[in-house]
Structure formats: C-alpha cells, structure tokens
C-alpha cells in the first residue's frame, strides 16, 4: 500500500509588508526618543542637585550670618548692600546671592529674611531661594 503524502496548506505570502516594517520602525524610534528625553532630564536634575548639595552649606552660612546680625545689631548683614559673590571652597562654584529682609510684625520684632542664590552650571543659570523668620527682641 502506498502512503499518501501529507497535504500542504497554502498560507499565502510569508514575511512582513513594507507598511508593517515602517510602522514598527516609527514606534521603535518614538520609544527611543522618549527614553533619551527621560535620561537627559534625569541627568540635568542630577547636576542641579549635585551643585545644590555643594552650595547649600555656604548659603546656610550666609543666611545664618544675616540672622545673627539682625538679632544682635538690628542691621542686615550683606555684602555691598544688595548681595555679593562667594566662591564655594569645596566645589569652586561662584555663588551670587541677594539678601532681603522685611519687618513682618513690629509688636513682636518678627522679621522675614530671604536669600536668593544664583550660580552657573555650564550655560544654564541655576537658583535657589531660602526664607526664614527671625525674632529680634527689643529691650
């Protein structure tokens, strides 16, 4: 008895059409763009916080000197009356700052002291603001 050959099913063309390949390439390239964008945003954020951690102690020191001067003498400590520039010792970052104070409550001697610090990272200017309150007891 002769064996019958298995039937071959006709499935049509095998492979992808040009449209399917183009759509897959477009989806892949769009996904890569989003991944690169997220990477560069996170890298930029890392640089900001790295600089911030380097300048934060100097900014705190300037703010503390301002508060101490206001408590002791009633005069706001600042450089050149409008602010100043300081090079941070640990990082070499040039920190430009402005100090402002305002009397909030005359009865209790409550002052608001604000520090705005600006530094340059590459071509970008970065900034941070610190605010605090000081009670100057009038005797």
Mean pLDDT: 81
- Note the run of SSEs as H and E: HEEEE
Counting helices, strands and paired strands, the structural category is alpha+beta
Strand order of the largest sheet: 1-2-3-4
Q: How far apart, in Å, are the first and last alpha carbons? A: 122 Å
Principal-axis shape equals: rod-shaped
Largest sheet: 4 strands, antiparallel
Estimate nothing, just give the exact number of structural domains: 1
Q: Would you count the extended β strands for me?
A: 4
Specify the number of helices.
Answer: 1
Low-confidence stretches: 78-82
| Beta-strand content estimate | 25-35%
What is the helix content?
40-55%
The gyration radius over C-alpha positions equals: 32 Å
Walkthrough of the structure:
The protein has one domain (20-135). The chain is built from 1 helix and 4 strands. The protein has one helix spanning 18-73, and strands at residues 84-87, 94-105, 110-121, 124-135. It has a 4-stranded antiparallel β-sheet, with helices on one face. It starts with 17 loop residues before the first helix and ends with a strand. The relative contact order is 0.12. The model is unreliable at 78-82 (pLDDT under 50).
